[in-house]
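Example record

The entry below shows one chain as it appears in the dataset: sequence first, then structure tokens.
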Amino acid sequence: MVLLAISAAVLFGFLALAFDFGRMYAERRELQGGADAAALAIAQDCARNDCGIGYDEFGVAETYADENATDGFAWVPEIDIDLNAQQVTVHTATEDPGGDNHFDMTFAQIVGYGGLTVGAEATVAWGSPGRLATLPITFSLCEWLAFGENGYVNEGGSLHYTQAYRDDLFIVGSGYQYAERLVQIFFHGNHQCTGEELPSGQDLPGGFGWLTTDGECASHVQVYDWVGIDPGASPSTGCEPEVVENLLGQVVL
């Protein structure tokens, strides 16, 4: 009988590990999905300046947390919105309709483990990054306005002339198909620009549009900081033809 009692306790312990902790893992995945969705939704509202006085962040978070839970219940105990840092953190946890916010165990209760509160959190930031490694080329404003104004970019990343707007070319996000028309943007000596930016007609004073690099085909750009120019007509260091050719069809910054 003693051996049977010990064996039963061990058996229920393994059942608790396999069944209850498996359920707990699934619960946390759902809570994580709810936290992710809620943080993204609130960050999107804040990016639109819609999360000021009177904004119900808990109402928004509860909606997304509940919809990501199989049983339709999830608790949002804490939300931290930092408008200065442009960041929001959402905490989600188990919500029991009984009110104790405990994830109830099935087999673990037999060995004396009643349950616990499962939680998850997600942090989302909005706004432009402060530092990036970008392709070391710059364009004058007039060239961008002539070729890339208002975001006429298709699903494949192809830029279109603003003047190409017609029945089969719509603003991004409209859901319509785009005209398959690639656009070539010149970064110096382009007839589309009048040279009003610089008398020489170039994009940079004494430069041809290339930026300095650290040996690779990338320039480190930081907010509120200056970026050095490469005054030569040839590509920046590291941007050999074969390197640039490998970027065809790739998304670059």
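Notes for this example: The radius of gyration is 28 Å. Residues 143 and 186 are 7 Å apart (CA to CA).
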